[in-house]
Amino acid sequence: MHPNPNFRQTDHAQSLAFARERGFGVLCANGATFPMLSHVPALISTDGTYADLHLVRSNPIARALKPADTPPLNVTLAINGPDSYISPDWYGVPDQVPTWNYVAVHIIGTLAPLNDDTLPGILDELSHHFEHRLAPKPIWTRDKMTEGTYDKMARMIQPFRLTVTDVQSTWKLNQNKPDAPRHSAANHVAAYGIGTEIGSLSALMHAVPDTTPDTAPDKDT
Fold first, then answer.
1. pTM, 2 dp
2. Is the dihedral of CA 202, 208, 214, 218 positive or negative?
3. What are the residue ranges in the chain where pLDDT is below 50?
């Protein structure tokens, strides 16, 4: 997460809404000898107080929470957004350096297992969260599965809840640049960006309120 306060001013509500919309991130926890990382879908509650997810029972993070009386595990769920390399030439002003613009949200909290009987509801809500975006395709439900298939597959996974204690986010969109150079860079991102979802990143850069700050050479790489 970038330490520059210019990039850390997005409020928790906006960051949580962004994270909920994306619904996929990297779950991180300390292990005995190395960090444990799992790429997981997760559904953040509408009030932002928790996120429900599931892990394969053999997952190292799931194993770290056995037996059942094990204390909750301190974790971070890192959710990445659009990103791109930014060339100094794109600003149209001298004495700039290369950097990378991006959006990232870290949801910090404690992870604990849930009762297995909560799993169907969690999976149904998670799939519906994404299925409704595929309209006019009919929403997929478990009813479409052959009888017994779901139960067989569900035995391999376990439900968990991440109770949120903090939210930290970076929205690095050239807020530290004057308006004209930032808009110029945003246009070049849309046309030539190297990264992911460059169109979305360009739009976010253009959406930064125009303030025309005093700007020194970029030192944020």
1. 0.90
2. negative
3. 215-217
